[in-house]
Amino acid sequence: MSAHPVVTGLGVAAPTGLGADEHWAATLAGRGAIGPITAFDAGRYPSALAGEVNGFDAREHLPGRLLPQTDRMTRLALAAAAWAIDDARLRPAEMPEFGMGVVTAGAFGGFEFGQRELEALWKRGPEHVSAYQSFAWFYAVNTGQISIRHGMRGPSGVVVTEQAGGLDAFAMARRQIRRGTPIMVTGGMDSSLCPWGWIAQLANGRVSRSADPRRAYLPFDEAACGYVPGEGGALLVLEDAAAAADRGATVYGAVAGYGATFDPHPRSGRPPGLRRAAETALRDAGLDPGDVDLVLADGAGVPELDRVEAEAITGLFGRGGVPVSVPKTMTGRLYSGGAALDVATALLALRDQRIPPTVNVGRPRAGHGLDLVVDRPREAHLSNVLVLARGLGGFNAALVVRR
Amino acid sequence: MPELTITDLRRIMQECAGQDESTDMDGGSLHSSFETLGYDSLALLEASSVIERSYGIKLPDDTVLDAQMTPGELLALVNTALTARTP
């Protein structure tokens, strides 16, 4: 087997910032980006906080032709993909087009665009619905638009496993690299902060009803009361290690291991699958638990789910056996974008040898037995980071990134 | 009698399919295909739907969806339909 595929480019569009540098600076500073929703009037809903991407004017980042046919999530994805490609110093126009592919994760699709066209349909009639609705709403559209824009005609796809998708996409991209496509753009991006998208998110019953941005999303805390949704994510360039070395690319780290499981029925009496996913990822990476220097947790923020994750972590690593952090306390949960952003964050942590903090968690539940890194970054020797993610409905995924 | 001019069409195309510095319809592009000008079949579908709504005419889908068509041909098609409609 060849060496593990490596990440050579980062593209971030998140509540913490536009671009990896902005995101990383805000993350190390512990600057929370959760606040009252400004994208629409959320006053009549039981929850009105979100992690929004601020200051993104699509006209500054995309050609005019792409504006009428794209939802906000696709605009963010196109911008982030372009940043990742630039960061990797790739010139797709000069590369073999079938040697580059795209795999993204998408949980919702273009809800804002879709809602606008539904409004046109019922207010004004079918002839007023945009022809671009045919694909702009689709949860696979980010893959398609990135592929078209950069002429990446190799194997491509989309995974739909909610929050776990951000890791599952890396696994699918890695598979394509192993099968001979040297360059893959991969990650996840979601944005559905509009009434239609908001209702869909509130329907799962896990969204926090707190109105206090500092108290609404507290994973592993005594006061955990659900999660705050957000928008954004990350797209990265994943590359065959030999191909990256041949062109002298700068390498952030390698995707060394992956595991995914599906939870049994809640009343089956069988244990949840998160720990098995993590064990599988470690085995795949050829690592023992003692080799892992940091866990970026899923951090559901729902007491029962926090307990399940804490048990999975302490079961593998022992009580207090490994530093754990949930930087998504600054952004909220970004669905497909969340775990992909965690992968980017993990790679930046490896680069700078600093563990990003968990914010707002003032009273970690003692029973969890987690060594939670809170409030400020922690210097540490980091070689291997385990990223965990769970998607609503029973999806578990774990990814190991290595320096 | 209403008539669709190249200026009207340029505005409609920009509204429907956005504007790029790279390609812009002007008088000189009357005889280049929409595809050459950077417009795909969906852009044409969107534009023809706006033209139909604004001018109260019906254009045959298969003709309009041909990206090999030129702005000049589309203008002729629309203006023929407008003439036919005028008593």
In terms of structural class, how would the helical and strand content of chain B be classed?
mainly alpha
Query: Which residue ranges of chain B are poorly predicted, with pLDDT under 50 across at least 5 consecutive positions?
Result: none
Number of strands of chain A: 16
- What is the C-alpha radius of gyration of chain A, as a whole number of Å? 20 Å
Strand content of chain B: under 5%
The rough form of chain A would be described as globular
Largest sheet of chain A: 12 strands, mixed
> Count the helices of chain A. How many?
12
| Number of separate helices of chain B | 4
Helix content of chain B: 40-55%
Q: Which pair of protein chains has the largest interface, and what are the residue counts?
A: A-B, 13 and 16 residues
CATH domain topology of chain B: Non-ribosomal Peptide Synthetase Peptidyl Carrier Protein, Chain A
SSE topology string of chain B: HHHH
- Pairing-aware structural class of the strands and helices of chain A? alpha/beta
Cα-atom radius of gyration of chain B? 12 Å
CATH class identity of chain B = Mainly Alpha
The CATH class of the largest domain in chain A is identified as Alpha Beta
- CATH homologous superfamily assignment of chain B: ACP-like
CATH topology of the largest domain in chain A: Peroxisomal Thiolase, Chain A, domain 1
Please write the string of helix (H) and strand (E) elements of chain A.
EEHEEHHEHHHEHEHEHEHEHEHEEEEE
| N-C termini distance of chain B | 10 Å
Protein name (chain A): Act minimal PKS chain-length factor (CLF/KS beta)
GO biological process, one term (chain A): fatty acid biosynthetic process
EC number (chain A): 2.3.1.-
Pfam family, one (chain A): Ketoacyl-synt_C
